[in-house]
């Protein structure tokens, strides 16, 4: 989906899950760690590159929510909106890495400030669109997400992750 | 790492894990499902494209085993060979998908016969090289792998997957 002649501005890795659980706040003195969790649905690992702007978000979210990536109980492959399933969004700057010798470099990644802003808008658009689609089915789903810039402590339980790469 | 002017012939997605468990044989009548498991180490999802041959394997395996992708307890990032950690190899044909409209197509993927042969050689080379590297440290590690062409029922427990994409 990346435009011809230029590199992608967003890289995503998509995995199907039966259940996924992500730490959103590490344990502190006198306070246990906090987690978010989804059941059946899709985990989206996302990394923004330099040059990414808000303009990419409608196409990005529409594609992720409407691509037929999920097994349905009735047989055909359907989108996460059609399933309907939940979403777990995981900011993953490491996806922007390029090997130089034995070391990974992340020079193409967006700045932390711009990335945080885009990530927040991405989460918000996913919430709007998935919840609107699911409302039509009457099934309860949710959009959960990790905290930008933090360690993403993740537990994943799948019936086959069906890992896909999508670049924009 | 892909050669200039031509697309990649191998796509891998790499995730760090504390523990990962993969079904290698589904349950049958009178027989429970069979699983393989690793503790601390790296999960390698791999997809071969048309045009991939055995020639790519030494560079592929050497890169995966020696890239510095793993947190060490002492601080610096080290390779899975240096950690040393275990490997779970997961054949993942879905990684070769390209979106056409809302549907994923897998026309660039290698044929099943060639893929099976390359995958077996890949597993074997990972075993040789990781076990040789780990023998020097005296630490017990293992190389586990999924069954080519089967559903990859996976459970993953991470302290941060640090997802990387590497193409060759």
Automatic annotation (TrEMBL), chains A, B:
EC number: 3.1.1.96
Keywords assigned: Cytoplasm, Hydrolase
Catalytic activity: glycyl-tRNA(Ala) + H2O = tRNA(Ala) + glycine + H(+); a D-aminoacyl-tRNA + H2O = a tRNA + a D-alpha-amino acid + H(+)
GO MF terms, alphabetically ordered: D-tyrosyl-tRNA(Tyr) deacylase activity
InterPro entries, per the entry: Daa-tRNA_deacyls_DTD, DTD-like_sf
Any Pfam family: Tyr_Deacylase
Gene Ontology cellular-component terms listed: cytoplasm
PANTHER family assigned: D-AMINOACYL-TRNA DEACYLASE 2, D-TYROSYL-TRNA TYR DEACYLASE
Official protein name in the record: D-aminoacyl-tRNA deacylase
Species this protein is from: Austrofundulus limnaeus
């Amino acid at each position: 989906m990346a435009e011809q002649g230029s590199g992608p501005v967003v890289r995503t890795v998509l995995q199907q899950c039966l259940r996924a659980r992500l730490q959103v706040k590490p344990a502190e003195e006198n306070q246990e760690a906090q987690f978010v969790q989804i059941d059946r649905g899709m985990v989206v690992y996302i990394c923004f590159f330099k040059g990414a702007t808000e303009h990419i978000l409608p196409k990005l979210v529409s594609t992720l929510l409407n691509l037929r990536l999920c097994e349905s109980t009735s047989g055909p492959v359907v989108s996460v909106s059609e399933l309907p399933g939940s979403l777990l969004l995981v900011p993953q700057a490491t996806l922007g890495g390029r090997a130089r010798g034995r070391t990974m470099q992340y020079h193409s990644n967006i700045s932390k400030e711009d990335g945080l802003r885009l990530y927040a808008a991405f989460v918000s658009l996913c919430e709007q669109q998935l919840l609107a689609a699911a409302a039509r089915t009457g099934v309860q789903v949710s959009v959960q997400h990790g905290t930008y810039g933090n360690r993403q402590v993740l537990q994943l339980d799948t019936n086959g992750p069906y890992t896909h790469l999508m670049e924009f």
